[in-house]
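Worked problem 6 (solution included).
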Amino acid sequence: MFGLFKKKNTEEDKEKKMALERDIIMALRQVYDPEIPVNVYDLGLIYELKVDDGHNVYIQMTLTAPNCPMADFVVDAVKAAVEDVPGVVSVKVDLVFEPVWDKSRMSEEALIELGLD
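Solution. The predicted structure is:
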């Protein structure tokens, strides 16, 4: 019975969600690992990005090395950048180290920037 009142995802809702995801990616591209001159998104540190229908964001990310001394800084910067995106309700960031990061996760632009192409 309660299903009758459940809001259906309209095409407009889907477009808004896709636009929000694009805005989140743009925000992530403003966050840099302090030791590498490439943003966390193009470095391939973002393993998963999910936005639910309520505009709550889940990010699973890693670092280039598990013993990174700037880990807290980078995770906090990612969370803050995404929280600042208009329309985002909440952000949860999980830091993981499996699978292990390697340069194959980097974008073509990042490889060129670092001279690894």
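Discussion: The beta strands are 46-51, 56-61, 90-95.
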